[in-house]
Amino acid sequence: MKRGDFALPGQPLQSPRHQLCHCNMPRPTRIEGLAIVSADGMLADADGHMPKSLLIEADQRFFQDRLDQAAVLVQGRHSHEGGGQRAARRHRLIVTRRIAALAETAIYPNALLWNPKGATLQQAWERLGAGDGMLAVIGGSEVYGAFLEIGFDCFHLSRVPDVQLPGGRPVFPEVGRDRSPEDVLRSHGLKPGAPHVFDVARKVTMMTWSR
Fold it and tell me: Could you give the CA distance from residue 112 to residue 114 in angstroms, rounded to a whole number?
């Protein structure tokens, strides 16, 4: 997702739990984030491309399996998860400020363009026609940052320590020279779980941060 592609409303963004109606309409029951980053906390290089060095087989299996369990995916216009036919079956909201509120799109089957400044998450969910279930946030940086403010129930962060992407796109807008992704997650009330090793030789690990 390119910087500036997503802007928050002028007023503070409320938690989806506050946006949702108190009724029997389908809704997100849990919000999870998933990302894999370089040693310096980057999702992609300076041009917005994810290098092959960040594609780790075990991480990809976990990522795709977790997305299969989601009721809806949220992503920026330039983010994607691959996955072929698996991806085509998934319901998704594509965040953009190029529309007023909600709009149909042919980018993916079962997808809807969503501008959070013009429509609540509940309104987008109902228009998409998804059932109850987990909402999976898959990037990019500004979308991850927005959902930090809304409130993740957990964030699955994978680290590839042998890759550096100077000048790249950070996983969260707050990441900088003196502020790591872990610092950002901790500052938003999330706590780390035990690390899972995805690649012994390259020392790639995944840690789930939860409330």
Answer: 6
